[in-house]
Amino acid sequence: MWDFCHSTVLSDDPEWKLHCVVGSRGIGKTALVKKVYDDDAVKKHFNHTLWLEIPRVSDVKELMKNMITINNDHSRRVIEAMDTNMLAQFIRQLIESSRYFIVLDDVPDIGIWRALKCTFPIENCGSRIIIISRSPELCHNICVETRGDSHVYSLNLSEEESWILFCRKVFSGSLVRPLPLMQISKDIVEKCNGFPLAILVIACALATKGKNTEAWELFHGSLVAKLQGSYSEVEHMKRILDLCYQDLPFYLKSCFIYLSIIPKDHVIDKMRLIRLWAAEGLVVEREGKAIAQVAESYLNELANRSLIQVARKHPDGRCLNLRSTKIKHIPGSIGKLENLEFLDLRETLVNKLPVEILKLQELRHIFSNHFAAGYIHGFEAPNKIGTLVSLEMVNRINATTSTLIELGKLTRLRMLYIAKLRRKHGRDLCSSLDKLINLQQLTISSFGVGDIIDLHYPLHSTHSSLRTLVFEGRLERFPQWVTSLQVLAIVVLRGSKLMDNALETLQDLPNLVKLVLDRAFEGEELRFGAGRFKKLKILCILHSTKLRQMKVEEGAMPFLEELQLCNCGLMEDLPFGIEHLRKLGYLLLEEISEKLLMTLQLKDSQSGDYWKIAHITRVHVKML
């Protein structure tokens, strides 16, 4: 149906045409036409495009005023002074002798059409009008009394059309189905009653399950249960949509529900929505990914499930996404993309950017990771990368002396990931970091296992925006300037190999809420002192193979909610004082010693330690 509607609108036939799309409420009429209306090819094909939503109770003059773009106060005053006849004449003159495409959404009665049709010149310029309505009789009457070529299209699909649409979404267009899924597929399509929206959302939900027969059968069973009985078309559609909502992962449900506060048919900017989700705490952090990246993946998942509609994309060369391609080299011609803002080279074979990249003065984001010899590498930057002063995010840039000095010129940077850092680079990096006062997220990775991250040089800036700090590599000592990071919320240490005083630098950070120590501690005892880590909520201690004991004094970590102890095989006892952590709701003990496991199993014995964690809601245990 979309292909037919799309091709009809873009037909080279110069004759003026009126199309009525009719169907029950909630069947997907508006979504289908909106997809055609927002298509880039459609926008380019017509001189004027207009989408007009018709309220149930409509004032014709207000509708006409809504058809006019007003650029300033003078124009507004002139328009306000016009009566209905003057407005109709004004609109007619605006679009006369031009190719226009107008959509009238949810036309309630023929009177509205009669009042508005005088504004639309019927000329052979290839213009198109689409009327969306629930009433077949209304659409028939409109077509009867309208001069020109007019047609009524019912949105219910035929059996064959339904099957083709379903296969296109689930099996990437192939009409050849896996045999185990054949009967289930046919039954599911039949239960959609030819409703395009129902077929679309169900097919997109099933597409996430691959060819897992068990998952398909489970979904099919839920669908059968949902649709038992006899329902109106609207209720039938609601039940299908509810099932597709229930099929969402937990992290998408709250984000999807949040969209209910946005007015119907309102277009919201992607980045604004991402910021709103993040501000509401709806985005679940993923290790190694910025909140904005995670939120964008949520948005893509919802769009792929056809539960939200992409209103428009930016076709103006602002984004170049080469992610997960086999590209090895970026050609010098990239310098011609003068509007480029976003360059994504993640999961490619690109390890060097050409000098022509320096021409891209609008470039804001560079994301890269190059896989080679089992390791993830960054990209080699051209000399004078500091001239790209619009850069805000740089992910995995390889450290060289000249590159680190140039980074100090990129004062708009909010996110920076430096790879292949050597000990000799410490002074130059600290000098540049001192100038990057807008940093929110900083990741520093050493060149190799033997290289030391040495950042003991002083910083004078307070870095009042830095919230996430990640060190990947050996630290002989923790940088003292970290103690001045008053808003620092997340610290991740990987392979740091710190000794007994590892926590002293971090323990008094006023806003630290998450601490991850992964192969980061080589001492035998970790001590959390009273009154320390006052806001810490999540503590993960991973692969500390020499750790034997962890002590928690009363008053330490008063708000800790989650504790993970994984691959700490020498620990034979629960953390001493764990019973003081009264807010602790989740404890993960993975790859623990057999002795520790035995003490936990003695629930009814005073010699056991289970009583110490009896207050914890969720305890997951896995032994060596």
UniProtKB/TrEMBL annotation:
Residues 10-174 form the NB-ARC domain. InterPro entries: Apaf_helical, Disease_R_plants, LRR_dom_sf, LRR_R13L4/SHOC2-like, NB-ARC, P-loop_NTPase, WH-like_DNA-bd_sf. The keyword Electron transport does not apply. SUPFAM superfamilies: L domain-like (SSF52058), P-loop containing nucleoside triphosphate hydrolases (SSF52540). One of its GO terms (biological process) is response to other organism. The keyword Nucleotide-binding applies. One of its GO terms (molecular function) is ATP binding. Keywords: ATP-binding, Leucine-rich repeat, Nucleotide-binding, Plant defense, Repeat. Residues 318-584 form the Disease resistance R13L4/SHOC-2-like LRR domain. PANTHER family: DISEASE RESISTANCE PROTEIN RP, DISEASE RESISTANCE PROTEIN RPM1. Belongs to the disease resistance NB-LRR family. This is Disease resistance protein RPM1-like. It comes from Nicotiana tabacum (Common tobacco).
